[in-house]
Amino acid sequence: MKSILSALFLAAFWWPFVIEADGQFDQCLLRQMATADDTLTIGELRQFCQSEQAQQDMAETATDDMGVEVTENGVETESAISRRLFLEKKEARNPFVLLPHKPNYIILSNNMSSPNERPFELADPAEDVQFQPWETKFQISLKLPVARGLFNNRADMFVAYTNRSFWQQFNKDGSAPFRDSNHEPEAWLSFQNDFELFGVKNSIIRTGFSHQSNGQSGTLSRSWNRVYADFVFEYDDLYFSFKPWWRVPEDSDNDDNPDIEDYMGNFELGALYKVGNNTFDVMLRNNLDFGDNRGAVQLGWSFPLTERVRGYVQWFNGYGESLIDYDAHSNSIGFGIQLSDWL
Asked: How much is the pTM?
């Protein structure tokens, strides 16, 4: 209540000057002060309004190059990471909010070079497995902030759930089955950081725990648990991450996939490049075993279709596109729509 009264007092005091100055930046600042979460600082509110004003100026100026950084009163546009963090904090004032975590998309036609039928044939030799080389692939990924301002206001705690499914929706003869669905609940601490070297800034450090499984039983069951760290960097419009992990050991009698690290490796590299309204992303994994080298590469391109929906193209080559295929090489390309990006 105290913060609301303070915001109303400030709004009442400054409003006549804002009208007189007719400044969009000042109006934005007042609006955010009245509605933002109490954990946000005045500096963060100013950064957000500077970024919003710069984007409006860029949209209104037809001669501006979308790849050139826009300034407003000499202040550089905020990075995509800073803007994403601000919006997440702002939305967190709603106790029931669910935020995007990993990209949310639906690839209507994911075309494979050859579907992996062997695990299903081993599970039921009498079943005539006939998978089609095209299917629908979609990912739903949401997170929830459960604690803010930990460790002297330097860390936040999140929980999340990600589902990635492979649906043979065009396979009418096979009753349109879900070939595989991967479930990944996780929890982590996110630390904001400002360490910078040679223009490269380490913005975020995350450390957490992840469980991933496909919810099957018997010979089709796949699962593993990991403890991970994730280091997020930015340099101009390039954003990249290094995510090493350690697999939590399991009893050999209960381990569904004891050799999964031979195919999935112990780390993941990610990069994202934003050019105007286009976003290009890449994911790399490798087991670093040069005698028996295995890994994966995934390339993505998203572009605007409407104000809220983006077109999405994704290519995957390697091991582990799905858990059922962790030890089988796959090569696929798909086209669809993206509802939320990494940034």
From this structure: 0.76
